[in-house]
Each structure stands twice: as structure tokens, then as C-alpha cells.
Design a protein that fits this description.
The protein has 270 residues and is an alpha+beta fold. It is built from seven helices and eight strands. The protein has two domains: 121 residues, no CATH class; 133 residues, no CATH class. The strands form three sheets. A three-stranded antiparallel sheet has the order 1-6-3.
Length: 270
């Protein structure tokens, strides 16, 4: 981390932080630097910022992430899929900042409706080919008219729900994989809905995120000097235990603010 920004006096830049070093500089100034020395290594500053991001995206629904949809490809026989480098098949772009999956629907031509002699195709032909007056199958008519389109699609969806394949997809963040149950018997394309985490640079200017970074760096500082009482220039002493307690309280208060300001969950019934 480049902390040269701390020596430039560009404090005004903290109202629009764009880099990790800028975020660290802001947090150090909130802790008292350069009036007092803050005993924390740059690597620990980076870790505090990244940990704050994990907390923010976990507890602050609606601000730390956002819903997104993509088309993904599931290989035959694989029950686990790494999200590292996974592509959106509709755009060809790599999906980054993958988060919790809330929706998945497979699409293989309505799961066999266009495959000769499959259960879906036989049922469809029996229902619409032989008996439906709007179908051109087995008759001299010109085919389905547009007025019956919605009705036909409703029946097709019923067929899919009844005899089509269904998959449960769950994201495991610790391993960065998708768990697929059951494992596909063939190559499957599906629409996945996931909550994507906001990029780190989009969080630097959020007040609650800033508080979380300051609190985490303050807690780390307190851990370092908790067994030492340092003397200040005015003769006062600084206790590591007191610093740790102060910023632990700030951390907990910020988590409470996350929960109070977070968007409520949405329940879909249908």
C-alpha cells in the first residue's frame, strides 16, 4: 500500500476517496495521526479495509450488493462449479464479485420439448398436435394463431414444471463455488440470479463503511498496545485496553446501524 498520500497534506481529498491508501489515510487521521503515532502496519491497514468490506456486504443489504442476472453453462455430471473466471454466456464477460444466489432456472429448449420422442415432446404433440385446432401438426391448418400464444406458453410451462429437470444452485463463498443438485445429466444453460458485491472503490465514501474501517483499525491498534500505557505530550496516558474497548463499541454501534438502515427482505409468493 502506498501511504505517501499521508505526507502530502491533501486532507481535502478525503471527501472523495478513490484508493485503498486514501482510505487508510482517512482512517489514520480519524485515529489521531499525525498528532499521535498509530502502531499499525500497512498490511494490517489493508486487512482492516478488506474485513470491513466483508462486514458491509454481509450486514448492509441493499448497499453492499445488488441483484444481477446472467446466463451460465453447467457441464454434464459436475455438481460443483468454480465461479472464478465463470462467464455470462449472453455477453461473454467474466462475472466478478459473485454473491449469494437467489434464483436459478434451467433452459434446454423447455427441457426436451424439441427432442423427438422425449416425454415432453410426446406430451406436447399429443396435446397440441392431435387435439389443438390451432396447431399445424397432423392437419391442413396454417398453425397456431397469435391470439392463443399466451395460453400455449402457459401449458408449456406447466409441462416443464411437471416433467422437466429442476436444479438447486447454492453459492459457497468460502470456496467460491456453486453447488449443483442434482448433477446435470447433460450440458445445461440456465439463468442465475445473484447478489453481486459492490467493488471496493464504490464503498470508500459510504459513511458507515468509513466508520467500520476506523473501528477495525482502532481495534487492531488497541490490541498492539493493550499491555502498554503510553504517555501523551500533555502528560496524559493512553491505555491499549481503553482504545480497544472504545473502538469495539464503535464497531458494534456501526453493525447496529447497518441492520437499522438495511433494506427489509423481499418475499415472493406464487
Amino acid at each position: 500500500m502506498d501511504l505517501s498520500v499521508l505526507d502530502t497534506g491533501e486532507i481535502a481529498g478525503y471527501d472523495n476517496i478513490k484508493t485503498m491508501s486514501g482510505m487508510a489515510g482517512y482512517a489514520l487521521s480519524e485515529l489521531g495521526y499525525p498528532v499521535i503515532n498509530i502502531e499499525i502496519h500497512p498490511q494490517q491497514m489493508s486487512q482492516a479495509i478488506l474485513s470491513a468490506r466483508l462486514d458491509f456486504t454481509r450486514y448492509n443489504s441493499g448497499e453492499g450488493d445488488y441483484p444481477n442476472y446472467a446466463v451460465i453453462k453447467l457441464a454434464q455430471g459436475e455438481s460443483e462449479v468454480s465461479v472464478k473466471g465463470i462467464r455470462d454466456e449472453s455477453t461473454g464477460e467474466i462475472i466478478d464479485n459473485f454473491g449469494e444466489v437467489f434464483f436459478f432456472e434451467s433452459h434446454t429448449g423447455l427441457n426436451g420439448i424439441n427432442t423427438l420422442f422425449s416425454a415432453e415432446h410426446i406430451l406436447l404433440y399429443d396435446t397440441f398436435g392431435k387435439r389443438n385446432p390451432f396447431s399445424g401438426a397432423g392437419s391442413n391448418s396454417s398453425g397456431m394463431v397469435m391470439s392463443s400464444y399466451e395460453s400455449v406458453m402457459m401449458y408449456l410451462k406447466d409441462i416443464k414444471r411437471t416433467v422437466g429437470d429442476h436444479y438447486r444452485v447454492k453459492y459457497i463463498p468460502g470456496r467460491e463455488i456453486l453447488k449443483i443438485n442434482p448433477a446435470p445429466k447433460c450440458i445445461v444453460y440456465g439463468v442465475v440470479g445473484m447478489y453481486k458485491k459492490l467493488p471496493l472503490e464504490d464503498l470508500y465514501n459510504n459513511p458507515l463503511f468509513r466508520n467500520m474501517v476506523v473501528a477495525r483499525m482502532g481495534m487492531q491498534w488497541g490490541h498492539h498496545i493493550r499491555k502498554i500505557k503510553g504517555a501523551m505530550p500533555d502528560g496524559l496516558t493512553v491505555s491499549g485496553d481503553e482504545i480497544l474497548a472504545e473502538y469495539t463499541t464503535m464497531y458494534n454501534d456501526t453493525l447496529l446501524s447497518f441492520k437499522e438502515e438495511s433494506e427489509p427482505p423481499i418475499f415472493l409468493i406464487g
